[in-house]
Amino acid sequence: MPQSPAIITATTAIARERAGRRDQGPHPRHPRPALPDDAPDVYEAILLAPGESKIDVEVDTRLPSAAIFTFHKEDHTLGNMLRHRLLKTAHVIFAAYRVPHPLTPEFQLRVQTDGEVTPRQAVINASEALIKDLGILSREFTKEYELRKAANAANQQQQNTAE
């Protein structure tokens, strides 16, 4: 559904720009494939529409302390990380995810706990732990990158002085 120019938000504009929808033509060596007229815009796979929720929760009545979470505009990356983190949690009995269709950007996460914590709280705790782990990874990567950059600069300077 196209939006009027007055309603386009900053995030939509950024997503369109990053998706390559600029007024510039394609690179001569790498032309963009022609999209059919009814193809959805690329940014629709990552941005939520107004009023669309990120996560839907459905209580699973067949099992005690179980729920199915549907994550919209996400894929295997988040699904696998959450599943893995949930399985490390003490009170989680079962955690699995599935992507209902490869062309739909969503996945379903099924979680069953032992009853001491709710499935919702288990997913929240796993998400917080995952954010913490990714923060540590980012800091360690940045630190290693800066150290290697400094070491390469020192090696370059030694080579220049030796010549």
TrEMBL record:
Biological process, per Gene Ontology: transcription by RNA polymerase II
Biased composition (Basic and acidic residues): 15-26
Domain of life the protein comes from: Eukaryota
Residue ranges of domain DNA-directed RNA polymerase RBP11-like dimerisation in the record: 67-139
PROSITE patterns: RNA_POL_L_13KD
GO molecular function list: DNA binding; DNA-directed RNA polymerase activity; protein dimerization activity
Cellular location(s): Nucleus
Keyword Protein biosynthesis assigned: no
One matching Pfam family: RNA_pol_L_2
GO CC entries: RNA polymerase II, core complex
Key words of the record: DNA-directed RNA polymerase, Nucleus, Transcription
Region called Disordered, residue ranges: 15-38
Major localisation: nucleus
Family: Belongs to the archaeal Rpo11/eukaryotic RPB11/RPC19 RNA polymerase subunit family.
Protein's UniProt name: DNA-directed RNA polymerase RBP11-like dimerisation domain-containing protein
Organism field: Penicillium freii
